[in-house]
Amino acid sequence: MCSAIEDVQGVGYFFEPLRELERVAVEPLPDFDEFLVQWRALVEERVANTEKRGWDRREDRWLREVVECTQGPDGLAEVARQSRRSDDLRAWCRALVEAGDWTVARAAYEEAAELVEDRAYASGDFLDGAALAAQELGSDDLDAALERAWREAPSFSRLCRWLGGCSTQEELAALAGSALEMVPARAARQRALLHLLRGELSDAATLLADARELGWSDAEHPGHLVFPLFVGLLGGATIAVELPRSYDDMSSLMDDNQPKLTTPTVDPLLQLADLDAQEAAVRCVMIEAMRSAAEKRIEGVTANKRRHHYGHAASLAFSVRGPTAHQTARRGCAS
Question: pTM for this one?
Answer without folding.
Answer: 0.84
